[in-house]
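Open question from group meeting: does this chain pack into something compact, or does most of it stay loose? Before anyone orders reagents, we agreed to write out a predicted structure and look at it together. Recording both the input and the output here so the notebook holds the full record.
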Amino acid sequence: MPAKPPNAQVEFGLEGERIEAWTRLVTVHAFPNGGNDATRAAANLANLIRKRYPGAKYKVISDPKTSEAIIDFLLSVPNSEMMEFNVFKYAPAGDGLVALQFARRVKLGEADAEELSGIRQRAIKEMAAYEMGLVKAYFGK
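Structure tokens returned:
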């Protein structure tokens, strides 16, 4: 039996921004190994966030109808004056998973709590409505 390919990701940033200094980033991920349980993958990421970034805020939302899961989290970027918001949507793809990630960084003071909350709510709503077929197709699933 041939070995499964390793995990893969492709990042898309804003034109003119170096990847090391991004402010908005969209990433597509493929996880061919480790099963196709989206809720478990989101929970595993939540555990990693909890360990690496104590005090970070996060939430996992599972959709039993589609077997998809969303996790969003907000954390302070180490050694900077930036806050980072991420939302991932995991979806089964054969024996593995694919994920779509939206991330945004803002400098402290450039956005208030209300604006960050609006960004979060909009990103979660749009991610929940997003059909993962294009992400699966990108990786040939």
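Observations to bring back to the group:
The chain has a mean pLDDT of 91.
The beta strands are 8-13, 24-31, 57-63, 68-76, 82-93, 96-107.
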